[in-house]
Design the sequence.
């Protein structure tokens, strides 16, 4: 029967070494370490929040994608700046794919630049592309 008391310090040393290694590898980054890429503007003309039911919070009002597009059009008509739009995570709602797709469509249709702010604070640009039409499938010739 092996002596457990003699192995205990060895196990404790291994656990302590593992904890130190994990602590060294899992360093935290401060906000000052985040570097903005060159194409992200320093400020944004419009900031919106992701809201529940795939809506957007714009100046405290919940808007559908179509309503948001109308509000941005109105800003353009009033000669207010609307060249860049930033979407952030809402208080109770995270940014979903539906939010990103809707904002990408609006940005493409209105000719503006749209950005999203990730949970980590990183800002990325949303770019929409037209889907190329698929070639019509040709019927197979029978023999």
Sequence:
């Amino acid at each position: 029967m092996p002596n457990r008391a003699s192995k205990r310090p060895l196990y404790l040393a291994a656990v302590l070494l593992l904890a130190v290694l994990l602590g060294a590898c899992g360093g935290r980054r401060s906000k000052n370490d985040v570097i903005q890429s060159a194409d992200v503007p320093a400020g944004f003309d419009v900031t919106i929040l992701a809201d529940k039911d795939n809506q957007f919070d714009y100046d405290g009002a919940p808007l559908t994608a179509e309503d948001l597009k109308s509000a941005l059009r109105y800003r353009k008509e009033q000669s207010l700046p609307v060249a860049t739009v930033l979407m952030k995570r809402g208080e109770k709602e995270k940014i979903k794919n539906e939010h990103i797709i809707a904002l990408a469509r609006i940005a493409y249709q209105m000719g503006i630049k749209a950005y999203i702010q990730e949970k980590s604070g990183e800002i990325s640009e949303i770019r929409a592309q037209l889907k190329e039409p698929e070639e019509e499938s040709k019927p197979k010739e029978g023999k």
